[in-house]
Amino acid sequence: MSDQSRRKFIKHLSSTAALLGIGQLAAMGKEREQVQLIQPEKLYTANDKIRLACVGMGIMGFGDVSCALKVQGVEFVAAADLYDGHLAKVKEVYGNQVFTTRDYRELLHRKDIDAIIVATPDHWHDTISIDAMEAGKAVYCEKPMVQQIEEGHRVIATQQRTKAVFQVGSQRVSSIAMAEARKRYLAGDIGQLNVVEARMDRHSALGAWQYSIPTDASPKTIDFDTFLKDTASLPFDPVRFFRWRNYQAYGTGVPGDLFVHLISGVHYITGAIGPSAIYASGNLVQWKDGRDVPDVVVAIFDYPATKEHPAFQMTLRVNFADGSGGGEYTRLIGTDGVMEMGWNDFRIKKHKLSAAPGYGGWDTYNTFTKAEQERFVQQYQGKYGAAREKAAETSSAYAAPAGYDDRLDHFKNFFAAMRTGQPVVEDATFGLRAAGPALATNLSYFGKKLIQWDPLNMKVI
Q: Which helix or strand (DSSP H or E) is residue 75 part of?
């Protein structure tokens, strides 16, 4: 590209984009393909200090707290967890001044706590979120919002009644790349959407939730009975405690842990509120370690036409036994192109059909007599003239800057809602409309049946 052409190209970019050759998708693209860098906006002003607590200091708890503390004016003051080692780690990382307890209820009425992160196993999400909102706290609840569909309606009702700030932790919906993808979708860049396909595959023990178990795990260091909550009473089992995602009693399996990310992103881009029918199939292939959830799940979701989008079909797949090494993508396929999503980047490939259908090749034209071929060509040229017979193909790519963190923007949105009263980006209703179809996927898989879903009222029909 000449200097003059490059200047002309930059001039026509939006004010929030610039040229850059980075990003997951950029690395996959053609050498000369240009990537538009999407710049984040300043989301808030740090007017007041926000004092934060976290319930559940596991992988997500420590990750969330670490990210939240990057927001100006946020202070970490308290943590609750059922394993003493996690509480000791809190003080090791954040200091002895942080209050720690096994009982999350001790946090609810402390005046030095403004917001609570709920990063527990899934079966505790609804109870702690509701209790915290009732106590006047803002709540950031990890995905999936709930373990059971009916729990989601109770969370929604509590949020609406208490007017508490409540945000679900599917950080992808706060990504600047996702916002740009929505703009490009609404602008009609891919034509009419008809198919969404996504996969999120893994090939490792840790990726399949075989997490490390500490050597000091015992009934003395872990409150296992409280962990069980209202599930079946069992003797102490550190495997269930630290690898709870592998069990229906405490987690939501592949759909609740991973499908919900994909569903949230598609709902955000398209404005969809949910499918009308769900069917899932799968198997337990490799990780036969005592878990009672599958490690391979494929699900088909039928989305009906609404004023926001046409009817489309979505197919999601997760495979924890992927011998190719794993990988992930989300593709929104339309009549004129495809949007290929990375995590914080995406590419649009346009492939618009010509008005001229063409002839020859694998075609009945070759079976015509020579005289009929001549008449056909004459008629064809008179009808289509100089119209191109090949589809017009173009490609453009977009990426967030290097080092960009969508989870940080998600926390900025959460704290901005607390400080300014602006709406959160993922409230309880959005959360259930993402979690509900994922939970219904489990109903389909274990029940071996098609699930009819009411997307407006968020319930199984």
A: strand 74-80
